[in-house]
Amino acid sequence: MWEAFQYCEVFAGRFSDAECQRVIALHQEKGALRSTMPRGHGGFIRDSDLFWVPRATETDWIFERIWEVATLYNSRYGFGLSEEMGQLQLTRYMAGQLYDWHMDLGGGPMSLRKITIVVELAGGGYEGGGTEVFFGEGRNNRVALGRGDALIFPSFIMHRALPVESGARWTLVSWLTGPQPLQ
Among 44, 82, 152, 160, which one is least packed by beta carbons within 10 Å? Predict the structure, then answer.
């Protein structure tokens, strides 16, 4: 199971261009929630705009697609996953916005996270940005993602969303959880 562990894996083309546009269009019905986490000496650890995507009749296909790729990835690792996925996070990064190094684990319900999935929805139209995963030397580990590609990794892996220089980067993020924290 863990003999061939990889820090992250890319599953290419999981969403078509039209489907990516359809997911981005979900934001037009609801206002953005500005999500910031200040850094002690100025600036931000996190600065992005969030839109929450609940599971509903019109979004069920998105959840099914995420679950499909998660179970494919998990077939090699065997995390104990719950079928309940919660809401998906549609994230927009505009010029200057980022999310610096972090893990997707924490106290309370966040301790149940097992797998993180980031789907690149914009596929261009912005400069800078992208996702970097910490491994090896921890530098220049930017993962090349095309529109509709899904990046998957265990939620305990350090990663970051690099600052966008211009335009808008859109991602869809999901965290799959289990009944108990990692042990």
Answer: 82
